[in-house]
UniProtKB/TrEMBL annotation:
Residues 204-269 form the Aminoglycoside phosphotransferase domain. InterPro entries: Aminoglycoside_PTrfase, Kinase-like_dom_sf, Methylthioribose_kinase. This is S-methyl-5-thioribose kinase. Its EC number is 2.7.1.100. One of its GO terms (biological process) is methionine biosynthetic process. The keyword DNA repair does not apply. Keywords: ATP-binding, Kinase, Nucleotide-binding, Transferase. Homodimer. It comes from Geosporobacter subterraneus DSM 17957. It comes from the Bacteria.
Amino acid sequence: MLDFTSSYFTMKESDVVEYVKTMLDCFKKDADLSCQEIGDGNLNYVFRVVDHKTGQSIIIKQAGPVARISDEFKVSTDRNRIEYEILRIQYDLAPGLVPKVYHYDAVMNCCVMEDLSDHRIMRTALMNYEKFPLFADHITTFMVNTLLLTSDVVMNHKEKKALVGSFINPDLCEITEDLVYTEPFFDCPRNDVFPPTIEFARNELWKDEKLRLETAKLKFEFMTHAQSLIHGDLHTGSIFVKPESTKVIDPEFAFYGPAGYDVGNVLANLIFSYLHADATIEDLEQKEDYKDWLAKTIIDVTDLFRDKFMTTWKEKIKEPVARYKGFPEYYLDGVMRDTSAAAGLELCRRTLGIAHVRDITSICDVTKRARAEKIALTIGKRFILERENIAVGTDYVRVLKETEEIF
C-alpha cells in the first residue's frame, strides 16, 4: 500500500484511485472507481475519478515539481495551496462562477474539486465557432467582484496586506515576468517563432526601442503594484462554459497585482478567437457573422466591466478618500490603461513565446497563419504604446479592424 502521508511523489492514475479510496470520503466504500489523467495545460496533472456505479465524479489536481511545458521551469508545489485558497475566496466573492473545492492535501500537493465535465473549455468551443451570449455578463461579474472587492478601496487595509503576504507567488510570477514581459521583445533563444513571422518580429518589435522601454515600465508595474488579488492567467483555456454557465478555473498564478492584467488577458484571447475564425471559416456569411459576434463580445466585456466596476464601487466602497470627486474615474482610468497593456502583452507573447495558443497554431495554411500572427503582433504593439487612449470596447475593435485592413 502506498504511503500518502509522509512525503510527496507525483501520482499516476492507479495511485490516484488508491489515494481516493484511502484518503478521501468522497465515494461509497463499494464504489467502482476509474481514473483518467486529462490535463492539457503547461503545469499540472489533472485526474478525473469516476464511480461507475453512481456516475459521481471528482477532479484531483496535483502540482508537479517542474512545469510540464519545460523542465527548465522549477516551480513550487505550493501553487496548489494557493489555487485551493484562491478558489475558496473567489467562490465567496463570485458564487457559481468558479468550481467548488472540497479538500487540499499539503503532503501530496493536490486539491479535490468539482468535476466540470458537463462544461467545455472555452477556447475549444470558440474554435468550433460556438456562441455564448451570457459570457460577457458572467465574466465581467467575476472580474469586478474578485478584483475590486479584494482591493484597498473595499477591504480593511491590514486584512488586505495580510492577503498580499499569503499569496506571494514568486515562482509563477517569475514565469510571467519572463514569458510575458521580457522574452517576446528580444530574440530570446527560448522563444518559439513561426519561421514566416521572424523577420516581422525582428523589425517591428525587437528593434523598436520605444516599445521595449514601455514593456520595461510595465514589467516593473506588474512586479510592484499590489492592487487586487488577480487570477493571473485568465485566458479562454482557463474558462469552462455552457450556454447558461461560465466557470473560471486554474488560478494558480494568482497574486496581488494590477487588476487590468486579468481583463486584458480575456480581451486578448477573444481577439485570438477572432483571428482564428477569420483564417479558418470558409463560408463568407458565416465568417462575418461569427466575427461580428466576437467583436460585439469584446465590446461588451470591456464596457460591462466598466459599468459594473463603477456601480459596485458606489455600493461597496469603504475607503473614505476614495469618495472624493473624480477619484473613482481616476482609478478606473488606471485599470483600463493596464487592461490595454496586458492585452497587448498577451497578444505578443502567445505569438512569439514558448506558450502558444491553439487558435493560431491550428491554422494550417501557412500564409493565413502568418497573416494572423502579424495582425496579432501589430495590435499588441498598439495596445501597449497607445494604452492611454484605449479605454472602451469600440477602441479595441477599431484597432482590430484597422489592422485587418493593413494585412
